[in-house]
Amino acid sequence: MNMKIIQSPEEMQKQARLLIRSGISIGFVPTMGFLHEGHLSLIRIAKESADVAVVSIFVNPSQFGPNEDLDAYPRDFERDEKLCRDAGADFLFYPSVSTMYLNDHSIWVSEESLTGVLCGASRPGHFRGVCTIVAKLLNIVQPDVMVLGEKDAQQLRILRRMVRDLNCPATIIAAPTIREPDGLAMSSRNKYLTPDERAEAVCLFKSIEKVKELFANGERDAEKIKTAVRSVIEKTSGRVDYAEVVDNETLRLVQTLEKPVLVALAVKFSGARLIDNTVLG
Ligand code: AMP
């Protein structure tokens, strides 16, 4: 099937209804574009899990704070289009901001329990924007399956909660983080790093490797895990935005690693804020 590019939300919804009525299942990958191998791995999973794969590219203004990088966010539609086609996408949904947010848009979706920590704490309003846009995209694309990356661990947990609490008829599949050869998690924002920062940015991965090793050797004190993360980052020009150990389900801060925990960190370089995470236990 030739990949179709659709810009209008109404047209995308109409196509989705036609597919559903024909008994064709839909796999969906929401993205903000500037695609890399991480995104493409999600598209391949969507293709394996459903009859057709729909990819959306939408740089969602409502998930960016007033001092964040909305205008500078990297965009390259022509390149993305080719990558989607090569990865086997059947539909590329590429709406404009004005069709997704009408001038008097006034309904928002807020999560109220998992958002107070990690990226939710350092980016107020971010997950309200994420939940709102993903709820809208789910209503437009009406997928059977939505594929999301483990790289955005808090986003994944919040969207699982949204799908559960709002009875969205989609199953979420979590996809593993794809990394550069040196371990840096692939991200559209890596492009902002200076060459020196790019070399240093592997510190996020190194700190994760270090805490995995500590955990394997029996360390169960969250404070010691956090200190280990910070000590790796502090050797670089990166500034720790947060380094936390939280319950893997509730995202509540923990002191002792008894149940599975999420170790998550965000590091600010001059050009980009990067995140990474691992689950221990
Ligand atoms: P974004 O375009 O950054 O909004 O990301 C779109 C989707 O791709 C999200 O579900 C991300 O978690 C996922 N993603 C981003 N980077 C990676 C990566 N390195 N490996 C796997 N999935 C990723």
Quick recap of the structure?
With 281 residues, the chain is of the alpha/beta class.
Would you write up a description of this structure?
There is one protein chain. This protein is α/β, with parallel strands linked by helices and 281 residues long. The chain has two domains: 4-175, Rossmann fold (3-Layer(aba) Sandwich); 188-274, Pantoate-beta-alanine ligase, C-terminal domain (Pantoate--beta-alanine Ligase, Chain: A,domain 2). 38% of the residues lie in helices and 19% in strands. The chain has ten helices and nine strands. It has helices at residues 9-21, 37-49, 77-87, 97-100, 118-122, 126-141, 153-165, 195-200, 203-216, 222-233; strands spanning 4-6, 26-31, 52-57, 91-93, 145-149, 171-175, 239-247, 261-268, 273-280. A six-stranded parallel beta sheet has the order 1-4-3-2-5-6, with helices on both faces. The longest helix has 16 residues, at 126-141. The protein starts with a strand and ends with a strand. The structure holds adenosine monophosphate. The site of adenosine monophosphate has 17 residues, from helix 2 and strand 5.
